[in-house]
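User: Hi! I'm working on a homework problem where we have to compare a predicted structure to a textbook description. Could you give me the structure for the chain below?
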Amino acid sequence: MTTLPHDSRTSPYRWLILAVATVLQAGAAFVTQGIAALAGYLQKDLHLSATQVGFLVTASTLAPIFTLLFVGDLLDRKSERAIIGAGMLIMALGLVGAGVAPGFLALCAALFVIGMGYSTVQPGGSRSVSQWFKGHQLGIAMGVRQAGLPLGGAAAAAVLPFVVGLQGWRAAFLSSVAVVLAAGALFWAIYRPPTLPDRPAKRPVLTVFFLVRMVRQRWMQRVVWSGMALVGTQYGIVVFLMLFLRDRFGLPLHEGSWLLLLIQLCGGVGRIALSVWSDRCGRTGDRFLPVSVSMLVTCIGLAALVGLPVDASRAWLVGLVAVLGFFAMGWYGPWVTYIADSAPADSVGLALGAAMTVNQIAIVLTPPALGMIHDAARSYDAVWGTLVGWIVATLLLLRVLGRMHQTQAASV
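Assistant: Happy to help. Predicted structure tokens:
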């Protein structure tokens, strides 16, 4: 390997690191986001209710609640390369289990294993990028890397229904094994930690006191509350959009998958564009602004989706889905950048793990809860209305918390 300079963050090698981190995220997201693309087919073949469809997503997202904090702490001490490599192998094993699962409960168990492996990818990939990029390049780098998630989802929305049509949903899971292993092998072969002139010392062993002190910081409270509302909304849209389009507008599942593809592609563009904006906002002191704007526009977009007439032009539907994709999925890029920029240098992994653990709680609870709301109300309007109310309440809470922190700072 070429010898890197004393501060290797100035080396062109960082762009190769960014490329493989993005491919890694896309490969992992091909699986996790692909579950939504398969939801309609699984519902039909296994005779599932909307609530059970929600539990499929819950099964794949439950494990990270128990592992993300541990993984984040480990990332501050050990090699991202080894941790992520092990995680991708675990994902591959879970995919094999899903491909041969005889029924709903066995499929949920396999999806749980997939979630265990995936818990290494998000904090590990984000930390690897934050190690190699600094200052005004952090946002764009993090945005490009985070764009891998919706782009992987877009690839899944385009490819997996085609595979299902040829050989069934079991083949879709089994064929995804090659994607996961290829992405993991590429990251393992290429990634190396940067050489830093001022590498931070290892922090003390994680304690409850240390974690509580971090969570009480204003930047962390912004991260926690906004992340829960936005990630819950994101997963609600991804899981139920195809079913909503089928029941409300009469779109077949294969046509709805193209709009799911569109929302993922626009989400990828949004993660990059909003992260570039966050770099500009960072110069003026508020990297969080793009996240707040994403919450507001997502709220308006969902309200518009509820009010869209059944006989509305397809152009209106496509345009609305594109806007929702840009903001309702694009928010994650500047959100992760805000964490990496705000956390202490020796605790970036822990901060990412803690924030993503809270997000996972929302991811686990939201799909089945929305499924139950739909089954009770017999309408997706109630689902989208619930998400709008959640975002509005979060925006109000963040405003109140901001004023409280200003009052406390003025009194010191």
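For your comparison, note the following. The chain has 17 helices and no strands. The CA atoms of residues 17 and 190 lie 7 Å apart. Good luck with the assignment!
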